[in-house]
Structures are given as structure tokens and as C-alpha cells.
Design goal:
Blueprint lengths: L14 H5 L15 E7 L5 E7 L1 H5 L3 E5 L1 H6 L31 E2 L5 E7 L2 H8 L3 E6 L6 H4 L15 E7 L2 H9 L3 E12 L8 E7 L4 E5 L6 H11 L6 E4 L15 H13 L3 E4 L2 H7 L3 E12 L5 E13 L8 H8 L11 E9 L13 H19 L3 H8 L8 E2 L5 E2 L4 H11 L5 H10 L3 E10 L7 E8 L5 E5 L8 H13 L6 E4 L18 H27 L8 E3 L2 E4 L2 E4 H8 L13 E8 L9 E11 L4 E12 L6 H20 L31 E5 L17 H17 L14 H8 L5
Parallel strand pairs: 1-12, 10-11, 14-15, 20-21, 27-28
Antiparallel strand pairs: 1-5, 2-4, 2-6, 3-5, 7-15, 8-13, 9-10, 9-12, 13-14, 16-17, 18-26, 19-20, 19-25, 22-23, 23-24, 26-27
Length: about 775
């Protein structure tokens, strides 16, 4: 308890090290005698491989090895297949693609790796790759999901006959359409949720070495948890996972995509074992653009009905997801298990039809990116609510109040079966409106008009689902000097676990924060059932795991204290780091020292205070972060430029472990959400599926001048499904910012008859709308 415990705004312990150059990233690691890898990648979006001439590359200076698919296949290296197992309504199974580590006979997107060159230096490997001669048979290609569904579209996988991987449905379409047709009002919207390139600070890197004596590979790579890559790489290599050690030091940004299995990791690990020397691959930023998973890329069509009072009668929603050339690990889950499971989001909608089509195209695969389907779902619902307000003659805040899931209806089971345990959606809206000074907006709008500017106000209510996979293991070991080591199954890559977990231990063991050490990112020390960090799961899964582990430590330490004080353990109480038995006391530090001395322990007790907890969460016990964000902005109608003037964020993330950490997560999520809404867009040439957004010259990223000060507040409604009362925080901003921003832009453009505008809302797009041209 006290000034360093749960709820206190403690600065991150890890920040001093990171901001003073003390970070240790995968690329900082150099191994003696290491060689360097460069991947030759396809320049074509779709082509057959008729022949490969590697002779000149093999003779190039510094080159040791040049490998192709057949080399890996000869050693039994397997293809990657998604583990998603959905079916069409008629029972037809999802049509899975098989992705080889290096291309086999055909390439299906620009950037697909074809040849692996290994040389003394990176420069020599890259120069040798330029000498590779490949006979290509160019094939027709398709980039957009809508075009890929056309009957005459080029087929990415000929064995499938067409590009539809899955058509999943929920609800009775005819019933829902009939309800909407009979409603007093209805609104329709078509949305393109733009494809994004996540762009972590640190490009990917992999470094591997093989120890023949132990028949073991050690692989260094940035991840969001080492157990997943260990299992995946080992599986594709055909070895036991114990034969592969994975180490992730500091990771420069995760955003979901660092939690995926990448085939370059398989190739690097295989090469180290094959040639018996350490090998290293460092991705360039250009490779990041064409080799890291992309995000979003959905097309949505939705119709919503309303009764005479503005209450929603039914929702019909259709989603087309572009999965790219190969179906990723989670690709089809994003709209179904990600977005679909929270639809209808903040709103009480009893009647609902939902359709998802996953479509193959000649593009980079899409997969998990911050929010993983929930930003798309919330954006769709919020745009419908704004349209509904206009159709029903209601204020945008009022139509939301009339349709929010009321606290009295909690726990609320969604159409997809998830149980929302808690939330005060109307309260968060009211708080956001008050803090954003909604009452004063008309006067501010008039002031903007006097200067020839257009002012808009946008609301983004949201709810998302956190908790992720239902198992997590955490371990706490108390050292002889009374300090603690946390062996974490979760993985911190910017969330501040070193600080938040120490605060939890402080509350339970009264340890100073500086005496708590976080140990993570190594399969040799990570708990066996440690899953990692994604889906805003760490505060709940890891936090509860630490709490329960600390409680076990107190139980054992109390027995030891009773022995030292010659008192019945039942009579011993622990308070603020001291064990009391009557007037006799012993400190936690003294008990820790005694715990490591068998001579001072009760008979039969094993030495040490070293406990772990495997947290198996109940199937219904997710958590549902929610809130309301408001964006106020101004548009220059002559230029189409946008200036964000105010951004107000009200979040319900349950019990707040550390306000500074949560604010940091909110700010980061908002920045990424606004990046999608304002600037970011991945462009392929439709006729050839050539990649046109291959660098920051062609791909806009948000910068400081695009942002406004984010005023962040909490509407705390403790979660009822875990004993810490926490809800996730990391993805909230990405869920709320797009709808708040686009809503504000549309509000500002009302004089021009605008009801919707697709992201990214660039100055050019706004200028064209104002000029009366198609956006």
C-alpha cells in the first residue's frame, strides 16, 4: 500500500535505461564468427518461377551459401498454415493456404522471399543477390478484395477456383432485413477501412547460432513473448521445442505484429544449424514495408434500422477482409473473433445479421494490428450512429444515450456470446462532453467561421474486449537479501510491466520498487505456460498471476516467521513488511534470509520463497475496456488542411494500476488511430498489384504537429471478472480515435452535404469534397 502501490502515478523504472541509451535490442547482439543473410525478394506480385540461375551469386565475393526452397524442403522444413478453423454456414471448411519459407514454383506478392544469400557481410550478401537470375512467367494479379471477388478476377490459388477463403455468417439475414425494412428510419453506409503498415520503431532482426554438442539452436529476435515463436519455429523445423532457445531483449514496438510467426525466423534458425555458424539477418525499413504483416484492409457494408424514438431495431453488417496472398495466423479471426465478438459495441441491439468474407489477393498478408478488429467494428458502429442521429433528427450524443447498454443490463451477453461484465457508457459520454466543453462549442464554431474556417466536433464511443488467451503463468522468487525477481510469462515491449508489476508486489509484500527485478524474454527462464503480451491482456492475466503468487509467498513466509518467533503461524500477522506475533516482530527481509538457510526453517520445509501461479481464466472472464473520446478540429476550406484543436479521452479501464502508464498507452493508441484517420494508407496498383507505398516518402506517418494535447480522464468501473478489477488499456485509443476524428471532419463539412468520408482523410480528399469532386 502507500505511495508506491496500485493506483499511484509512478514514473516507469525502465525509462532511465531506455532514454539514456541503455536499451539492448536484438541488433545490438553480435556473435563471434557470424555471417550475414540477405533475402532476394520477388519484384512481381504474381509470377511462376521457370528457372533460377544462382551461379554468379555463389561466386560473388564473400558468399558462403545460397539457398532456395528445395534446400529447406530436403531437410523437412514445413509450410506455414493458419490455425484458424472456421466454416461456412453450410459446413464448408475454410480454404487454407500453404506458405513455404522460401517461394516454391510461384510468387504471390511483391516482397515474397525467394532466395537466401549468406555472406561475410550484409553488403556482400546484398550485392550477390543482385546477380541472381530468375526466369519469370508473369501472371495476372489482383490487389483489392472487392475486385478479387469478381467472377473474372485473377485467381491467387488455382486449386481453390476463386479467391474466397471463407464466407462466415451469424444471424438470419432475411429476418433482419425485414425488420429494417419495416423500421421508421434506416441508414446505410459503405466503408473502406484502409490498409496500414504498422512500422514499429525497430525493424525486424534475427540472429541464430547452433551448438552441435547439445543439438540446440539459440535464436535472438524481437517478439511479444518468446514461447509462441519457440513453438512455431520448432514445429516448422521438425524439432522439439526444447531444442530451440528463443531470446528477446528489448523490443522496439510490438503493436500485435511482433507476436506473429515470421518465416524469416525459420530460415535463419535452419541456416545456423545447416552451416554450423552464427547467422544474422537485419531487415531494412523497405523490407519492413513488404515483409511485416499489414493491418486493417476491410470493406464494410451496413444497414441499421431505428424506431420512432431513435432506438435501434436491427443491424445488418457485412465485412470483406483482404487476407493477402497467404492467410495469416489470425487473419480471419480479426473481423470474427476480434470485431465481431464485440459488435454491437456499446449499443443494445437485439437483432443482428453479420457476414464475413475473407478474400485472397496478391498483397502482403494482413494480421493482428493494435486493436485486432475492434477499431474496425467500433468505427463502423459510430459512423452508423452519426448517420442515425441525422436521420432521426436527434443530437449525436442523445441517440447514443438512447441506445447504450445500460449498467442495469450488466452482465450483458453479446450476439457472439461474450459476457460484458461492467461499464458506464453514458457516464463516460457525459464526462467527455463536460471536459471537452461541448456546451461552448457553438460559440467556438462561430469564431472559426468568422476567420473563414470550418469547425467540427466528433464523438467516438467504444468498447473492446481484452484478456486474450485464457492461460498465463507468472513466477516470483524472493532472493536472500529480500529483493524479488519476477519471471514473467507476459512480455513488456513498452507497456511498463517492470513498474506496474513492482507496484503489485509492493502492495502485497511492501517491497521497495527498486528491489523488484523483471526477468523476461528467454525461453530458458520464462515460465512454461507463459503466453506473452497482446490483446491488452497483461494487467489482467499477468497482474492477477503476480497477485496470487505473492499471496502464496506470504503464506509460506508467515510459517517461517512463526518458526523464527516461536509462535503459532495462525497468530502471526503481516503488515507493511513486518510479521507480528504479539510484541515480537521480524521483518520480511529477515524472513527472506532465513528462507534460504535450511537450518532456520520448520521441519520438512523446502528452502526458498519461490512460487509460481498458472492463471486459468474462466471462459466468460474477459474484460471490456470502454469509454468515449472527443475530437474538435478546424479545417481550412481553401487548402483542405486539418488542425486538431482539442482531444478529450475518457477511458474506463477498470482499476488503474498506474495512471501515468495508462495515459501513455492511451496517447500511443490515439496517435496510431489518428495516423490511420488522417494520413496512413497502403497503395497497390490495381492492374498489377505492384506495391506503391514502399517507403516513408509514399506512406504518411503522424508527427507531433498533427496532434493536439490529449486530455485524458478515467471513469473507473472496476471489472468484476478478476480480483484486481483491471481492464486493458493499450488498444483503447486506436478503437476510439478514428471515429472521433472522422465524425468531427464530417461535422465540419456539413455545409457541403457530406455524410461520410473514408480514411485517410487527407487534405487532398477534403479539398476535392469541398471543390465538388469525388473524394
Amino acid at each position: 500500500m502507500g505511495q508506491f502501490g496500485i493506483g499511484q502515478p509512478i514514473r516507469r523504472k525502465e525509462d532511465v535505461r531506455l532514454v539514456t541509451g541503455g536499451g539492448r535490442y536484438s541488433d545490438d547482439i553480435q556473435l563471434e564468427n557470424q555471417l550475414h543473410i540477405h533475402f532476394f525478394r520477388s519484384p512481381h506480385a504474381h509470377a511462376g518461377i521457370s528457372g533460377i540461375d544462382l551461379s554468379a551469386a555463389r561466386e560473388a565475393p564473400g558468399v558462403h551459401h545460397v539457398f532456395v526452397h528445395e534446400d529447406l524442403a530436403a531437410d523437412g522444413v514445413q509450410d506455414l498454415m493458419t490455425d484458424v478453423d472456421f466454416s461456412d454456414r453450410d459446413g464448408t471448411k475454410i480454404r487454407r493456404s500453404r506458405r513455404p519459407v522460401l517461394a516454391r514454383e510461384r510468387v504471390r506478392f511483391v516482397g515474397e522471399p525467394v532466395v537466401m544469400v549468406i555472406a561475410e557481410t550484409r553488403e556482400q550478401a546484398r550485392a550477390a543477390a543482385d546477380l541472381i537470375q530468375i526466369e519469370w512467367e508473369e501472371l495476372p494479379a489482383v490487389a483489392s478484395s472487392v475486385a478479387a471477388l469478381a467472377p473474372d478476377a485473377p485467381v491467387v490459388w488455382p486449386e481453390f477456383d476463386n479467391n474466397l477463403g471463407l464466407h462466415w455468417e451469424l444471424g438470419d439475414k432475411d429476418e433482419i432485413d425485414a425488420i429494417i425494412a419495416g423500421s421508421a428510419k434506416s441508414v446505410t453506409i459503405d466503408i473502406v477501412n484502409n490498409r496500414l503498415i504498422p512500422n514499429p520503431m525497430e525493424p525486424r532482426v534475427a540472429l541464430a547460432e547452433y551448438d552441435a554438442a547439445s543439438d540446440r539452436i539459440t535464436l535472438y529476435a524481437p517478439t511479444q513473448g518468446v514461447r509462441g515463436p519457440q513453438a512455431g519455429v520448432a514445429r516448422l523445423l521438425g524439432i522439439k521445442k526444447e531444442q530451440l532457445r528463443v531470446i528477446s531483449p528489448d523490443t522496439g514496438g510490438g503493436f500485435g505484429i511482433r507476436g506473429k510467426l515470421y518465416l524469416e525466423l525459420v530460415a535463419v534458425a535452419w541456416a545456423a544449424r545447416k552451416i554450423g555458424r552464427p547467422v544474422k539477418w537485419l531487415s531494412t525499413r523497405s523490407e519492413t514495408f513488404v515483409s511485416d504483416y499489414h493491418g486493417r484492409d476491410q470493406v464494410n457494408h451496413a444497414v441499421m434500422g431505428f424506431d420512432e424514438t431513435g432506438r435501434i431495431t436491427a443491424l445488418h453488417a457485412e465485412t470483406i477482409l483482404n487476407v493477402g496472398a497467404y492467410m495469416g495466423e489470425n487473419g480471419p479471426r480479426l473481423p470474427i473473433d476480434g470485431g465481431g465478438r464485440i459488435i454491437p459495441c456499446s449499443y443494445d441491439i437485439e437483432k443482428f445479421y453479420f457476414s464475413v468474407k475473407t478474400v485472397y489477393t496478391n498483397t502482403v498478408s494482413t494480421d493482428t494490428y493494435r486493436g485486432a478488429g475492434r477499431p474496425e467494428a467500433n468505427f463502423l458502429l459510430e459512423r452508423l450512429m452519426d448517420l442515425g442521429a441525422e436521420a432521426c433528427g436527434l443530437a449525436r450524443d442523445e441517440i447514443r444515450r438512447r441506445n447504450f447498454i445500460a449498467p442495469a443490463k450488466m452482465p450483458y451477453r453479446t450476439q457472439m456470446g461474450l459476457l460484458i461484465d461492467s461499464g458506464d457508457f453514458a457516464g463516460s459520454l457525459d464526462m467527455a462532453l463536460k471536459e471537452a466543453d461541448y456546451a461552448g462549442f457553438p460559440a467556438r464554431r462561430k469564431e472559426s467561421e468568422a476567420r473563414g474556417k470550418l469547425r467540427g466536433f466528433g464523438i467516438g464511443s467504444f468498447v473492446e474486449q481484452s484478456g486474450g488467451r485464457p492461460v498465463e503463468e507468472m513466477r516470483v522468487r524472493i532472493e536472500a537479501d529480500g529483493s524479488a525477481s519476477i519471471f514473467s510469462g507476459t512480455f513488456s515491449h513498452g507497456q511498463g510491466h517492470d513498474t506496474a508489476y513492482a507496484q503489485i508486489l509492493h502492495d502485497h509484500l511492501n517491497l521497495p520498487l527498486e528491489q523488484v527485478k523483471l526477468i523476461q524474454g528467454d525461453t530458458d527462464t520464462t515460465p512454461a505456460q507463459g503466453v506473452g503480451t497482446f490483446g491488452s491482456r497483461s494487467s489482467m492475466m499477468g497482474g492477477v498471476g503476480i497477485k496470487r503468487t505473492a499471496e502464496q509467498i506470504v503464506v509460506k513466509a508467515t510459517r517461517i516467521a512463526g518458526h523464527l518467533l516461536q509462535s503459532d503461524p495462525e497468530q502471526v500477522r503481516f503488515d507493511e513488511g513486518v510479521f507480528h506475533a504479539g510484541h515480537a516482530t521480524v521483518t520480511f527481509k529477515e524472513v527472506a534470509k532465513a528462507a534460504h538457510d535450511p537450518a532456520r526453517l520448520p521441519e520438512g520445509m523446502a528452502p526458498g520463497l519461490d512460487e509460481n501461479w498458472v492463471y486459468n481464466r474462466h471462459a466468460d472472464h474477459f474484460n471490456f475496456p470502454n469509454g468515449c473520446h472527443i475530437c474538435e478540429l478546424e479545417i481550412d476550406p481553401d487548402l483542405g488542411t486539418v488542425e486538431i484543436l482539442r482531444y478529450t479521452a475518457v477511458d474506463d479501464c477498470g482499476t488503474v494500476l498506474n495512471p501515468l502508464l495508462v495515459h501513455g498507452q492511451v496517447y500511443g493508441g490515439v496517435a496510431q488511430g489518428l495516423g490511420q484517420a488522417m494520413l496512413e494508407n497502403t497503395v497497390y496498383e490495381e492492374e498489377t498489384a505492384q506495391f506503391l507505398s514502399g517507403s516513408f516518402v509514399d506512406y504518411g506517418m503522424p508527427r507531433a504537429h498533427h496532434m493536439a494535447h490529449i486530455a485524458a480522464y478515467f471513469n473507473v468501473v472496476p471489472c468484476k471478472t478478476n480480483e484486481l478489477g483491471v481492464k486493458g488499456a493499450g488498444e483503447a485509443g486506436a478503437c476510439a480515435a478514428p471515429s472521433a476524428f472522422v465524425g468531427a471532419v464530417v461535422d465540419a463539412l456539413k455545409p457541403y452535404g457530406v455524410s461520410h468520408i473514408d480514411m485517410p482523410v487527407t487534405p487532398e480528399r477534403i479539398w476535392r469534397v469541398i471543390a465538388g469532386q469525388a473524394a
